[in-house]
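EI: anyone free to look at a 500-residue chain?
SC: sure, send it
EI:
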Amino acid sequence: MTFARPYARGRRACVAVALRRGVGACGVAWLLATCPGLAWALESPITPVPGVAPATSVPTVVPAYSLDRSDEDWSARRGSAQRGPWERLKYLPLGHGGAYVTLASDLRSLYEFYDGYNWGDGPQDKDGYALLRAMGSADLHVGDARLFAELRSGLVSGRSGGARPSQDRDTLDVSQLFAGWHTSSDTGQPWLELRVGRQELNYGEGSLLAIRELNVRRTFDGIKARLRARAWSADLLAFRPALIRAGRFDDGFDASQALWGVWATRPIQGRSFWTRADVFYLGLWRRRGPFHQGTAAERRHTLGVNLHGRRGAWSVFIEADVQFGRFGTGRLRAWKYVQRVSRSFASRRLRPVVTLQGGVSSGDRDPASADLQTFHPLFPRGLYYGRIDGTGSANAIVLHPQVELALSSTVMLEISHFSFWRQSRAEGLYSQPGFPLRRRMEPRGRYVGSLQEATVRWRVDRHATVQGSTGFYEAGTVLRQATPAGRNLFHLSVSLQHKF
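SC: here you go
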């Protein structure tokens, strides 16, 4: 083992040269994730510098990886001796002024197969396709300021009909790039934080403003100000969605849409059943809003509340939204209500968690009228009802029972059922992002269909997760009477994800 120290120094030098020569965080992420020797080298001890006292070792809790990597705070790792091969990259000190850099990566490969994609409408795959995603980030902290940069690459191979617009392919581009600054109160807690630039937005339960966890994520260009006062935390938002193109560094911003609003959250303490409340206002302007009624300029205002409750083994979630504004020359009035109840059985075998969720959202009552009553989900997460690319939350009634089982300490089984109806028989169906499906639909019947789904998730370790999912969607009366007629759908997917 006489070569261990030169080997470790050589690998560290490779990373340093890669950063200096502009390979960037994404390239370094690929290097770290695909080179086991580098991970082994990082575990080797670093020779102390003569005359410089080592930092005092302070045991710390390792933070969990966030869906949005810019939300992670690794400052507590300073001086900690509990560093594994990847955790060393979470706190890289720069000089003696307290500045540091955090590196991160997210690599995912996914195989997906549909028999009857879009219920048989459009190009169909015979043997499935592969989706590949790589994301790498660097987070620089200097005093009260920070600079966060994240690159992404999303590729698709073997899909009949090619890549789906904006969600399958983005060869190489900037996912996030923002400058931040915060100021702290006398207690040391930040009370004002500003972020300016390209960012991900993720709020609530993912139904209105969320990270689109697909092969290519959705991002926004603008400014966010976070204020903290007593128990309240409020984010003020002013953004335009990023315009995703398939090439290299060619993404722009979408001048045809604008998003603004405020999202406030506070914990509820004491003996109350309720544990947290979110109240929010979100404004959306679209130059061309597509609905079954037609396409026109849209200005939509959303007021809503989320309530979380827990007592013992029971937990409850409620979401209520109202929307108003203008659609073309007509008035816009829409609404949505969701309620979820869960019961855990932690002392039983397999530690089951049983959940029942129901939701209803408004649909248009009269396509001949200039007024519009269709609920729009704004910018929801990519897959909301199950793990298939199917119907969304506009003009919908949904009933969703689910059971989660812990097969072991690292393996979870999730069994779900969804039943779908349309709220208004005068209007058709919408995709999860809110685009019309099946333009020609009969006014008879409400039943859209049902989805049965099973998912197994194996957490190999802190960094790696393997997941398999299969589902069967039985087309109901509404889909079968549409033009073109819908048929049953089968879905299968297997994914491997590695994070550090």
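EI: The chain has two domains: 1-49, 64-499.
SC: 👍
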